[in-house]
Design brief:
Layout lengths: L4 H23 L9 E6 L2 E5 L8 E7 L2 H4 L5 E4 L6 E5 L6 E10 L2 E2 L6 E4 L10 E9 L14 H11 L3 E5 L5 H8 L4 E4 L8 E6 L3 E3 L1 E10 L16 E4 L4 E6 L2 E4 L3 E10 L1 E4 L6 E9 L5 E8 L6 H22 L4 E6 L9 H8 L2 E3 L7 E2 L24 E6 L3 E7 L3 E2 L2 E2 L10 E7 L1
Parallel strand pairs: 9-10, 21-22, 24-26
Antiparallel strand pairs: 1-2, 2-5, 3-4, 3-6, 6-7, 6-8, 9-29, 10-12, 11-12, 13-20, 14-18, 15-16, 16-17, 19-20, 20-21, 22-25, 23-25, 26-29, 27-28
Helix pairs in contact: 5-6
Cofactor: Mg(2+); Mn(2+)
Keywords: Carbohydrate metabolism, DNA damage, DNA repair, Glycosidase, Hydrolase, Magnesium, Metal-binding, Nuclease, Polysaccharide degradation
GO molecular function: hydrolase activity, acting on glycosyl bonds; metal ion binding; nuclease activity
């Protein structure tokens, strides 16, 4: 049978349409969205962001009380407005964990779920009151075996500290470099506290325009030979020894002057800086300082701590013990003042997070779980010198932490890093990223 040219063209076009229609969904299937993350929290809402997916027309955000439930079809769903890569989940319960996943919707269908990310709604609305103090913690890796040469990094470390824009900076592994950092930070208004130059593994730097070192009166007995200050004419005294009836003291002549024969002891009171360090038989160390907020006159205790490093069961148990010791020692010297713990706790939220559990048992909480806003929470605080911006699932993987009381408000929680296209930009300052937050202290 001979087909007309018009019918032949119709058959060819129909075949192309059929083939193209069948092939397109397979070749343009929506890809998986990157891990979402929470950027804001209230007692009854969470704001969620995620990386854009190619070809997405909208996104489906599912949320539930656990990562596994967030992957179920029965989970709550909220659809984004067109291509927007953010939604606000409302009607949530306060102080509860919520886990979210995201799927891209293209003209070819709905893609697979993203990895889950979890966060908490706040226990109460953030009410700025008391003293507002921004804090940061930063392990600068100055002397450990895995640290890179200090020269060439010190300026990058200072830049990261300045990027954090914090009033108090807790530094770990500043071994033999704290004085140099103090010199480099001084032009920017920071002063240093470390126990002494030979024991400066942990250090605290603070803005002198915002805070001052608190002092405490210390009374000690001092004993010394007092010079004679009476009205008697000592020129007629017979050397080397004379008894003065007026004072009831024996005096001895020394270098042409008369002094009491025995030491006279008196209590003397002197104001000394309220600061110090904690040690541990297991190797954990910490520096602490009592700082007074200039604007309010209120005083708080800030701690820079570094716990045992290792993922072994023994190290997990040691970190629990070290956390208990840290809390006990800090509360003893705080004498009722609010305490802020900062540092490298070598443990992140997940399995075997003994520091967080012990802190929570005694009334301190990770500011990451209590903050009103977040910046780059998807970045791990440990970068391991990797040029790629690492992120760990579910919680983000932050071993550098800030622990606060439940009465302390937190906002502007941030991983401080310079990145471009999920890669680190510029000179790597350390194998850690600074973590900072703004605290509202009672």
């Amino acid at each position: 049978m001979v087909l007309s040219p018009l019918r032949t063209l119709s058959i060819v076009l129909g075949t192309l349409i059929l083939v193209g229609g069948l092939a397109a969904p397979a070749s343009a299937r929506p890809g998986q969205v990157g891990t979402p993350y929470v950027t804001a929290s209230t007692p009854h809402s969470l704001t969620v962001n995620w990386p854009p997916a190619p070809g997405a027309r909208r996104y489906k955000v599912t949320y539930a009380s656990s990562p596994s439930k967030a992957h179920r079809s029965s989970a709550h769903v909220k659809v984004s407005k067109k291509r927007r890569t953010t939604v606000r989940l409302t009607g949530l319960r306060k102080a509860k964990r919520y886990c979210v996943t995201v799927r891209a919707v293209t003209r070819h269908g709905t893609g697979p779920r993203s990895p889950a990310h979890c966060s908490f709604t706040m226990r109460r609305s953030l009410r700025p009151q008391g003293s507002t103090v921004s804090v940061a913690t930063f392990n600068v890796c100055a002397a450990a075996p895995n640290c890179r040469p200090w020269r060439g990094r010190e300026r990058a470390i200072v830049r990261r500290i300045l990027d954090a824009d914090a009033d108090v900076v807790a530094v770990q592994e500043s071994t033999r470099r704290s004085a140099e950092l103090a010199r480099l930070l001084a032009p920017y208004g920071y002063a240093r506290y470390s126990d002494d130059p030979g024991r400066d593994d942990e250090t605290l730097y603070y803005r002198t325009a915002k805070l001052q070192m608190s002092t405490v009166p210390v009374t000690r007995s001092t004993c010394e030979h007092d010079p004679y200050v009476g009205d008697d004419d000592t020129s007629v005294w017979e050397a080397p020894r004379h008894f003065d009836d007026a004072t009831g003291q024996w005096y001895l002549q020394r270098d042409g002057a008369w002094f009491t024969e025995v030491d006279l002891c008196r209590p003397r009171t002197k104001n000394v800086a309220s600061r110090g360090r904690f040690g541990s038989p297991t190797g954990a160390t910490a520096a602490w300082a009592s700082l007074r907020v200039v604007a309010t006159g209120k005083t708080y205790l800030f701690v820079s701590a570094h716990l045992t490093h290792s993922a072994t069961p023994k190290a997990v148990r040691l970190r629990r013990t070290e956390t208990r010791q840290l809390i006990a020692k800090a509360t003893r010297v705080a004498r009722g003042r609010a305490v802020v713990f900062m540092g490298d706790f070598n443990s992140y939220r997940g399995l075997n997070d003994t520091p967080r559990r012990e802190m929570a048992r005694q009334g301190w909480f990770d500011a990451y779980d209590r903050s009103a806003t977040y910046t780059r929470p998807f970045l791990s605080s440990l970068n391991g010198w990797d040029t790629r911006a690492r992120t760990l699932g579910i919680w983000g993987g932050h071993i550098d932490r800030i622990f606060i009381r439940g009465t302390v408000g937190s906002t502007a929680w941030k991983v401080v890093a310079r990145t471009k296209n999920r890669r680190y930009a510029g000179t790597k300052a350390s194998d850690h990223n600074p973590v900072r937050a703004t605290l509202h202290l009672p």
